[in-house]
Amino acid sequence: MAAPTKKSRGFLRYDAYNFRAKDPQIDELRTLLQRQNGGRLDGALFRQVHDGGGPTASCLRGWFFGKTRSPWNASLEAAGRAMGYRRKWVRWSGEE
To answer: What angle do CA 85, 60, 5 make, to 5 degrees?
Structure first.
């Protein structure tokens, strides 16, 4: 089991879940949205996610185009469910 390695700016970092730029979950949600909307990301689509119970349009813009690096798990989950998806845990072999 992975343990926290060290504190960085008040946040714990884990060896088992490490990324440099943005959380990979942001990219997964962006890809799902683009597939639903013919490759486009726009304000109308973001409002549709928000109206379905997900985060606000400005929050989604921050994830996809802004400086947000690590959104809260509950926000990611709400966005996915508002789009009609749910996450599932599967065994990982350690390779992408």
So the answer is: 85
